[in-house]
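Subject: for your reference before the review

Hello V.,

The reviewers asked for a structural picture of the protein, and I figured it would be easier to keep everything in one thread rather than splitting it across files. Below is the amino acid sequence we used in the manuscript, unchanged from the supplementary table.
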Amino acid sequence: MRAGLIIYGSLDTLSGGYLYDRMLVRALLNDGWQVEIFSLPWRDYAQHLGDNLSRTWRERLRTAAVDVMIQDELNHPSLVWVNRSLAGRVPYRTVSLVHHLRSSEDHPALPRAFYRMVERSYLNRVDAVIANSQTTLASVNALLARPLPSLVAYPAGDHLPEPPPAARTESGPLRVLFVGNLIPRKGLHTLLDGLAQAPPAACQLTVIGRQDADPGYAKEIDARIRRLGANPPVRLLGRVDDAALAAAYASHDLLAVPSYEGYGIVYLEAMRCGLPVLASTAGAAREIVTHGRDGFLVAPGDAAAITAIVTRLAAERATVAHLRAAARARYERQPTWAQSMGAISHWLAEKTVQTEQAKPT
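And here is what came back from the structure prediction:
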């Protein structure tokens, strides 16, 4: 069987969504699929909409020799009218792989309404949906005029090297870790505001992630850090390799990424290393984190709640130890990448066979 995968840029792009895509491609190849990547260059939203006017792009998809075309929903602006024009003219099924909807992010009212309109039009022209969480699937279903075949396949956290023994102490500042590209959606600004109000020397922060994803935001973050002075001390490490990331999880006391996430692979990575999580109530983090048991959930932009949590944990190190054990136990209940991606491969194969059998002879 043959599958296509539509993405922007490179499959090696650093993000949870692209990690999911890579793991899916690996599983499909292991199951004997042939996989072809259909890539478009990264540009702004308006230019992506312009892709729909490209005859070359439309013809490439019309003549694609695949049985199923998996479309990363991130690419929806480049597909919204192409899919409409190709309806009934291609032999393959189109399946949207949804990590999260752009219209679910925190945008001003008018742009958000526009994104919602475009995503609604796009989603109502695909044949099926794969979602990374029940939360994501619910947001998709809210835009559909009719139910579509769907599958929820959760991400996993077992792709990193085996974590080293935890290098934590029960004294000194609370070591807080942020892992994510420096973009507004990840909420680093809110985290910094919260940590700034904690008692002096209560915590220290390590930031891991690309600093060139949004240069304007990165400059804002740098300015905030300079205004903080030494409270808390902040280390910006940029992008690190997988071994260094696993070691960072093992040497910190709390992962704090108060962002909107369609699921949140970074939370699972941390929990694998026995690291409790501070996440946002926005998105699907509540499908991973149980507030007060293995981590904490705070409302978007609630810096005061972050202050209260880190202040408490800095003073109650025995509580941190209990959270660590619960975080690892939560990770143990998660399916592996092989299990989740294997389920997608089986589901796609089943749908492809059904399509072939339904064709007139």
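For the response letter, the relevant points are probably these. The mean pLDDT is 93. The longest helix spans residues 337-358.

Happy to draft the paragraph if you're swamped.

O.
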